Every structure is written in C-alpha cells, then in structure tokens.
Amino acid sequence: MTTETATARPAGRPRSEKAERAILEATLDLLGEGIGVSELSIEAIAARAGVGKTTIYRRWSNKEDLVVDALATLKAPMPELAGKSVRDDLITLLEVMRNEAGQVRTRCVMNIAMSESDRFPHLFERFRKIAVEPRRAAIKAVLARGVATGELRSDLDVDLAMATLSGSMIYQTKWGGAEELNEDLSARIIDQLFAGFAP
Asked: What angle do the packed helices 104-114 and 63-72 form, to 10 degrees?
C-alpha cells in the first residue's frame, strides 16, 4: 500500500459518518413531525437525508434497526459516578432523565415511537436492551451498593426501589408539566424516597 493510499483512506471516514448522522437525523425528524414507525419509509428517510437507499441498506438491514439506532442517539451517555455517596450518585442518574425530558424534540419522538410498541415488539425489545436496561442496571447497582455500605436499609427491595425512583421521575416529566422540571427535582425525589429507603 502506498503512502498516498494510506492517507487517502481516513478522508472517506468523515463522509461516511456524515451520511450516517444525516440518516439518523432524518429518521428522528420524520418521527418528530408525526410520522409513525409503520408509515415511515426508507425512501422518505433517504430523500430527507440526501442519500441513496443503498447507503441506508449498507448500514441497516431494515427500517426497525435504523429506528432503534436513531432513538438510541436521543439517550445521553451514562454519566460518570463519583461513588462517594449513594444519594449523590442517584441524583446524577435521575438528572439524565430530567434533562432528556426537558427536550421537546426528544419527548415528541419518543411518544410517537413508543405508541407503536405493540406493532413492533422486536424494535422496542432491542431499544430496551440498548437504551433502557443499562440505566436500570446503573440505578440498581447504586442501590445495592447503598445496602452493602449501610447507607440504605438492609431489607430494602432493590428492584422495587429502582422502579420507584424511575417511576417517580417518569411521572413528573410526563404528567407534571414543564414547571415541574426545575433543577432540584431529582434531589427532591431522592430525598422524599430516602425517608423510606434509609436505615
């Protein structure tokens, strides 16, 4: 391989990443405009992204896999946890949920996409594994750590506590209105529930 070939190859990668980003954004834009997963077509995504259908099919074998990857981009990466205080680490994890709920586009796309979960069970099972389960596992691990260190009750039902924390945030972000999404929401949820979680 010549030096020219070696240096030319990386130049193609940004174009590939640019096309992939355009495809994912086009998918989210169309969902955000109210097009359901069942009506969404590869043709429409390709037209919106400014790419050919073959460019999409080179990366995704079907529409459902593309939608999963597009939805996953709306989920922020898991934050670094300080590991010093169970309370602080749980607040950090809930803050991710609160911040996402404050983004109108994210809420809109998720609501539209999730409304068809019965019609596309494979899609939503994959999305759950990619985007939901890692967050649940992180909260569960912090709660289990709290039980082990004595920061939380020794008889705490960790699974139920995890569901209670997540459910409280989901309720507030979905039904509480924008005024409820203020900066102290995560801390208020944690402090309220810790009255029952603490030793």
From this structure: 150
CB 49 within 8 A of CB 22: yes
- The one-character DSSP state at 2 is -
Domains and CATH numbers, the chain: 8-72 (1.10.357.10), 86-197 (1.10.357.10)
pTM of the model as a whole? 0.77
Can you tell me the distance from the alpha carbon of 67 to that of 169, in angstroms, rounded to the nearest whole number?
A: 25
Integer angstrom CA distances of residue 173 from 10, 79, 195: 43, 20, 22
- Please list the pLDDT of the chain residue by residue as tens digits (199 residues): 444 444 343 444 445 889 999 999 999 999 988 898 999 999 999 999 999 999 999 999 999 999 999 998 988 888 889 888 999 999 999 999 888 877 878 877 888 877 888 888 888 898 888 888 988 999 999 999 999 999 999 999 999 999 999 989 888 877 766 556 788 899 999 999 988 888 8
According to DSSP, residue 75 is labeled S
Q: How far is CA 18 from the centre of its chain?
A: 21
Distances (CA, A) of 158 to 113, 124, 151, 154, 195: 30, 25, 13, 10, 15
Contacts of 130 (CB under 8 A, 6+ apart): 68, 72
Q: How far apart are CA 94 and CA 135, in angstroms?
A: 10
